[in-house]
Request: fold
Amino acid sequence: MAALRRFKFDKIAESQSLSAQEVDHLDRVSMVSLKTLKIPEQICNAKNDQQELCRVASHFAVQIAARGGGRRRGGKKKKKKGRNKLENLLEKKSYQCLKQHLAEYQNKWKDMEQMALAHAEDARHMGKNASPARMTFFPESCIAYTLHNFNAHYGVMYRVLHEIKTRLPHFVPRKVLVYSGVPAVAVVALNELYPSANSSSGGSGDRCRDRSCERIVAVESSDSFESISKYLTERIPNVMYQMNLYNNTRDKYDLVITSHTLLTLYDYNARNLYIKNMWERLSPGGILIIVESGTPTGFRMIHSIRELFITELKYDKFHFIAPCPHESICPLALTGKDWCHFAQRTHRLSHHIYCKGSRAKNVEELKYSYLVIRKCEGPRTVYKCEADALTPEEKSFFWPRVVLPTIKSGKHVLIDVCSSPQNFERLVVTKSASLIPNLRTPNGSILKGYGYKSARKLLWGDLFRFTKRISRPDARLYTPESTKQHLYRLYNKHKRRQNVTDVVDRQSREHFESRAVQFYGS
Reply:
């Protein structure tokens, strides 16, 4: 009897592959970096009188300083007697347009000198409890400084807040404290991501009120910066300004932003006291954002603050949201040749408003270092591993961070990541690897692939959510063996001292012992 040859479609099991919505959700949480950004349109809409003032301020504050110190190859040019440098400079054809504004600036320079003498005299009679003199800047210089730095700093602040909103969708800052080096940068970026219910960029209804800020307190360092900030944020409601950071220390905030302020504090103890004060102003579950320049000095400032939290707080009192995927020592701090920093590109202002260098370049890139800390227990403490986490947002706290631009070559990608517990690894993702799709196992966990196509799209600062196929932990290992042994002896000495003087509960000791060296390296 011939066998029955036909398909039994009812016996084929359903596909366990992830849906397109789930894959898109995972990609959106992991790819947190942004490409070239633009500032909001309401900031660019400048009036004719503002354009004229910007042109005068930019010429006076930037181009004179840039071109005034140059020398010709023919040697020193003889200066005419009885004239200062500014008068000799104004004789050139390129600076003829500034002669008509010279008279009004001369009077302001005299006022500035008188004010400096007054502040110097007041400093001699100030007591210990007296407040310092308010710093006053030239209005035109403040305008030129804002135009020169606003776009780049706005892009950095928008990128940091965008990552917080993506990875913490239920976090809504009701009360915000902002202390930034550039006026109105953080306020404008915050309003773009968490728009107020009454602002021009925000919507209407109960949903918008639930996702909006109720109060924003901005601290500005001078009257001129405060006036500029008010002008740029006139459409944003619920913004309060104050000159002194310590006017009201009783209020608690859900979000505290401090940007490019640590470098102005030259003392180590002063920086620690400043950060502790900002931390005390946070409500439970609040977030502290620290942003500095992406230089070795800026990274050392961030790293010292990071070590302050690790050494003085228990693991269940705080956790790092970004960029660190762990609460251990920073591996980049041990190499001696690398520092943790990232970059963000932003479109420049129009050249008729402010000319910043070459007109051929319309995009500028600013490098920065940052640290985002939350005042509560984190997912890395609640869950033992990534598989135990419930949502993609919680899983993202276990994913390694891309700390350098990816190296793309033929049929493979090199990715330098910082991963848990405190490893600096170089991952190799090849095209010839077996292509495992994203599957869901019967117990509900996700089987991740190698992600070659996604690896070629990674940006500097993204999270790598795929399986580590080839790992080279010694690819960028610069620390000599003798240095490692010395650091290990320091760690053992510190450990013995802690056992004698400190009283640590068993859970905390087991948590720190389960990971690698906390203070002095691995």
Q: What stands out?
A: The radius of gyration is 28 Å. The CA atoms of residues 117 and 501 lie 52 Å apart. The first strand starts at residue 175 and ends at 180. Confidence is low (pLDDT under 50) at residues 11-15, 61-76, 125-136, 514-522.
